[in-house]
Amino acid sequence: MPAPRPATKAEFHKMPPQIADGKAKTWITRGGNFAVAVSEVEQGAVLTRPSDPEEHMIIIPPEGPTLNIEAGGKSIEAKADSLTIVPPGASKITAVSKGLFARVFSKASQDVIALASNAATYADGAPELAPPDLWPAPHDGYRLRHYPLAQYAKPNGDRIQPRVFRSTNMLVNLFVHYQTRRDTRELSPHWHDDFEQASLTLNGRWIHHMRYNWGPDLSTWRPDDHGEMTTPSIIIIPATAVHTSRDVGEGESSLYDIFCPPRLDFARKKGFVINEDEYPLPDVPVDDKVKTGGSLLAWQKPG
Ligand SMILES: [Fe+2]
Known about the structure:
Largest sheet: 7 strands, antiparallel
Strand content: 35-45%
Number of helices: 2
Number of strands: 22
Structural class: mainly beta
Helix content: under 10%
Distance between the termini: 36 Å
Strand order of the largest sheet: 2-3-4-11-6-9-12
Bound molecules: fe (ii) ion
């Protein structure tokens, strides 16, 4: 039995970018079925994609840049604190102002996947994961979809405010940023049977507590990991690894979770996915097996 797949931890300012030109630096980290590209751009930077086979997402944090995004014959000006879903095909981003933002691509964008800093970790193709399946096309067809995020934050609401969006090929949970620290008596260590989770953190300092399954061969066991990470950074959490994240230190912190393909348990919770009316659910049996176990908060449980 091989050693469990290790988590990938990437602290972007401690490593060279995978793509760099005069106006943009891009760090690419992959999971089994997706890649996250985080870019720092100057005003006037241009990032083009010749032909992505599937949709991808553009996440601009509250302190991020304004981006002009062109795709599908349309153009939008995406401001800070927004999410944009880009249709398949060619697309172009022009930075109207400087800052940091993230894009999430599925495995179908093989040129992005190939550039990932952790490509070697996935050289075996990640056979432990459920294969990605493209969900049905949106009701009104593929097009640019843009969601300013501030309207989904309740200023005096719960500390943990999930904000979930999905496309045909991925699901993101863009938690409202945190001003206070997580109560260490209310953590949620849990695991996912056959899919991975990327946690992208752009503000604050984070500990992603991680415990790996034991197999019969002691020599393949991995120790628990309680290492602290600076931001901006990302962790790719392997399937079956028990995990829970908490922020430490002072000031604002942020965490965005990424799942590719989309999580059916979240998508089926009526009213949980903000843009659920735009995309049909796949036609699969409701009684499929549980894929997430452990200590779960109410919002993490199936509906
Ligand atoms: Fe998780």
